[in-house]
Amino acid sequence: MKKFITKITSGVLLCTMITYTTPLFAFTKDETVYSKLDSTGNAYNTVISDHIKNTEKNSLINDMSDLLNIKNIGGDETFEQNGNSLVWKANGNDIYYQGDSKKELPIQCDIKYELNGKEISSKDIAGKSGKIKITLTYKNTDSHIVKINGKDETLYTPFVVACSTVINNDNNKNIQISNGKVIDDGNKTIVVGLAFPGLQESLDISKNTIDIPSSVEISMEASDFEMNNIMTYITSKVIEDDDLSIFDDLDKIFSEVNTLQSASKQLEDGSNTLRQGTKTYNEKSKEFNSALKQVSKGISSANSSYSEINSAIGLINSSTSTLQDGAKTISDGTEAISTNLIVLSEKLGELQSGASALKTGKDNLTSGVNKIISSINANTSNFTNQSDTIANLQKLISTNTNTKNALVSQNASLNSILNAGGLTAEQEATIRTQITTNTNLIALLNSNIDANNSTLALLKATDISSIQQLQAGLNSLQNGLQSFDAGIEAIYNGSNSLQTGANTLATKSSELSQGAKSLYQGTAQLSTGTKALNAGSSEMKTGLNTLDYSTVKLTDANNQLTDGASTLANGAETLANGITKFNKEGIGKICNYANGDLKTISTRLEKLQELADDYNNFTMLDKGHTGEVKFILMVDSIKKDNDRKQEAIIENKENN
User: Fold this and answer.
1) How far are the Cα atoms of 120, 150, 193 from residue 233, in angstroms, in the given order?
2) Which residues on adjacent β-strands are paired with residue 63?
3) Which residues pair with 33 in a beta bridge?
4) 3-state secondary structure 21-68
5) What is the C-alpha to C-alpha distance for residues 355 and 494, in angstroms, rounded to an integer?
6) What pLDDT does residue 445 have?
7) Contact 230, 634 (CB under 8 A)
8) Residue 433: which residues within 8 A CB-CB, separation 6 or more?
9) Residue 6: predicted pLDDT
């Protein structure tokens, strides 16, 4: 019986919490109190949002508030304040404002943690494994002395407390909650519990008859324990006026059970409608949450990408002066190139003259070698006097030495041309090829000079066999001169091509110099533009950072809203099932119970309704206005990495 009535009470109160609305008058003040609690239940930050519904579209609204740091969060309407009195310049608009409060909440929360049956502090329980029990005890401090059947009785403003959290199934199992519901989707478990602090005392009902809970227990078997935020929703709107009309005439109600059954059927239909509506809301909330995550991801990506762009713009801006200096260097360099091209043209003329002289020297060398060979061939059989041969050989050595020196000098000129610069790739390749050919010829001449010197020494001391060796060396020299002839021809032709190219480069150098001057002038204009671009980019980067941060905050808040939507949908499902069972099984039992203590309870319920109606604000309400207030409490999560933060919060609370 007690369990059944408890379920009925929980279902009705949850339904009332979700669906309650206040009739609209000229000025209706809808107030939401947001308070953050540390892991022990102590409030350390309370922010209150107020919405004044200006249904009459008045230009001025009188208001009362004891909030601190009041600011408009829904528009640009201003207000004038005199103490706790406010006058809003509404201009026909609703007013949305927010402020801080240091007032004590009407519902106090105390949180106790147990590990394997022993109490443990919230700062030590993170990361522990074992049987965990969390007890949230709510205390109603909003008491009133009222007359009940001629006697003074203490009644408490009837607050309904609904708390919920999400538990990860990966490291938790056997999750349970007292006077509530456990919803397991496989990956996570949502627990929802209800409490009615002060209601047991207000109704003066023995716990043996009905045990009305004022606390919620959450238990589980945990591994490496952590806990998400615990959300608590509090409202004073327990029973509506229409609900109390059932007690106006108890005799009539007791005799007309059919009326109760009809009302119960309507309640069942309404709960089914609520179930479908919350299901749709839950589905759409998940769709919106998914889209919001994509938006947040896109903004984060844009912010990250733009950081690289902004850095590049800053680099460009810092490099414009370097670019301007470089352009000046280019302009000066083109003038130097033009001068060097003139020198190059002169050197190439010298190279061409040298190539002609080298060709003539080669022809003389070939003629001399041929004469020596002919002389040796003609006189070998009867060679008795070696003096002519020695003289000719000495002349050949001298000629080879002069030719070698000419090639060394030519290589020096070619290297000078390369170092002067201003050549095309093709011209540079031709010169390098010629230098290589000359180097090879120099090596060949050195070899022949050495061989001839050796032969000369032999001629002075040997017989005809030495002459034969000389003849063989001269034949080798003659073959080498044929290869040398091809190289000389290549040098001569290449020098003509280089001369033509140098003349062309000299003609274009003036155009290049003019273009370099234009480039230098353009870099000065670019420097001014990049400074403006860098300033604008910095402002855009700041804006993107702000947008990225705000989107992350919005996404986090919407994640909590989505979890809340799932909780509401599951709660509505549970409510609908409970109401159906109530309609089918509970009417008779309720009517039997009505013959006992219900008459006294009805009087107390009427007084509780009056207290609930009177509790229409937490801060202040201007005379003649209507109001509604609800509380949302968020208990800090327990994570292994924020133990120090928890200690700091608790220490700060104790110091204050």
Assistant:
1) 26, 35, 10
2) 86
3) 48, 631
4) CCCCCCEEEEEEEEEEECCCCCEEEEEEEEEEEECCCCCEEEEECCCE
5) 10
6) 87
7) yes
8) 490, 494
9) 47
CB atoms within 10 A of CB 565: 21
The pair of three-digit structure tokens given for residue 365, joined into one six-digit string:
């060398």
Strands 626-635 and 27-37: parallel
Determine phi and psi for 187, rounding to 5 degrees: -95, -35
Which H/E stretch holds residue 626?
Answer: strand 626-635
Integer Cα distance of 435 and 216 in angstroms: 98
Contact predicate 83/99, CB 8 Å: no
- Using only the alpha carbons of the chain, give its radius of gyration: 52
Q: What length does the chain have?
A: 656
**Residue 285, Cβ neighbours under 10 Å: how many?**
20
Which pLDDT score is estimated for 350?
Answer: 64
Count how many Cα atoms sit within 13 Å of the Cα of residue 256 in the half-sphere of its side chain.
11
pLDDT along the chain (656 residues), means of 10: 42 39 62 96 96 93 95 94 95 95 96 96 94 97 92 94 95 94 93 95 89 95 95 79 48 52 67 75 75 74 72 73 70 66 64 66 70 67 62 85 89 88 85 89 88 80 60 69 66 67 66 70 74 75 74 73 72 72 58 54 86 91 89 94 55 56
